[in-house]
Each structure stands twice: as structure tokens, then as C-alpha cells.
Amino acid sequence: MNGYGKLTAVLIAVWFALVLSASAMHLFKNDSNRVGLAVGLAALAPIVLFSLWFAASDGFRKFALSLNPRTWTYVQSWRVMGIVFVIWEARHVLPAIFALPAGYGDIAIGATAGSVAWKLANPGHRSSFILWQMLGIADLVIAVGLGTTVGLFSPHRTPMVAVTVLPLSLIPTFLVPLFLIFHLICIVQARAWKGVSAETRQTATTVQDFVPRGFQSHRN
After folding, report:
1. Could you tell me the CA-to-CA distances from 86 to 52, 82, 98, 101 in Å, in that order?
2. Domain limits at 115?
3. Which of 13, 27, 156, 220 to pair with 129, CA 20 to 30 A apart?
4. pTM (2 decimals)?
């Protein structure tokens, strides 16, 4: 692990410790039907900081893009734990308008992550790989959006307080932004595959042009 790898690991550990401590002190707790501003800021801040660091530092950008996209796609398999939202909705702990789309969306992404990592994480399936990553981001955005606006749609339904206290508070404040960052890295990596594929085809064409026509005819 290089310097950026160690630094990134330390920052992720510090980030987790901060949100865990804040959750333990009930800084994210919100008894209203919305997740609340504190949770929203905790989810957004890491994404903004990552984007700024990625854009400003060539070294960090090269490190991030050197990571194996299959690995970060496999990590999304953990999102099958979205079944927790569905279970808690059935127990009337979370409102259905939030828990069902967020839960089933996570289950779908988590259940397909393994096959996507195995079959689509290559230049030959670039478009499908990017599409799946974008669907993963859309699921996270929809979940956070519903969580922060559920009070507007069903003000008298089950409140969202369970997502603002431990253990579920770690999902919007840590796991959601972390998974979204992994999606972003994979998309940037996959966008570069087009150039690699084109260069490979151009090289193959150039080599073929240098092969004597007689030899090509003999092979055929």
C-alpha cells in the first residue's frame, strides 16, 4: 500500500469514528418525519471532500484510478443488507414510502454486484458496467431524497427517527457516501476504457497493415 493508500485508510477510519461518536451522542437524532439537516450534511460532506481532492491532486487521482474496479463493485454486495429496511418497515419502525424503495433498491444492487463485477468490469462491457454503477448511485440518491422529504408526503406516518440513531444512522452518514464514492471511481475508470479499447483496435489494424498480403492470403 502506497502513501495515498495508507492516508486514505486512516481518513476512512477517522471518518467512521467521528460519525459513530456523533451518533452515540445523538447529534443526528431527529424525532420529526425527516432525516434532518445534520444527517444530510454528514452524508454530503465526504462526497464533496473526495471530489475536491480527486480534482486537485494528481497523485490521489492516479491512486484512486489504479484501484481494481472489480473489487469496489464486489463491495456493493453488502447492500443486500437493505433487507433490514424492509423488515423494519414490516415492524412499523420505518415508513413504507422510504423503507420499501430504499430496501428493495439496495437488495437489487447488492444481489447483482457479484455478477456485474465478474462479467461486466471490462472494456468489452463498458456501457453496461457504467449503467449499473449509475443505477447504484440513483438508488442511493433516491433513498436519501425520500428520507429527507418523507415528512412532506406522509407527515402522519411512522417517523424516520430510527435512521437517525444507532445502528441505522451509520447507513446515511457513512455507508451511503462510501458506496457512492466507490461508484464514482468505477465510472471514471470505465470511461477511460473507451480510449484503451480504441487504441488496442488501432494497434491491431496497424500491425495487420504491415503483414504482407500474400501471407494474409495464405492464412486465409
Report:
1. 35, 7, 10, 9
2. 3-194
3. 13
4. 0.86
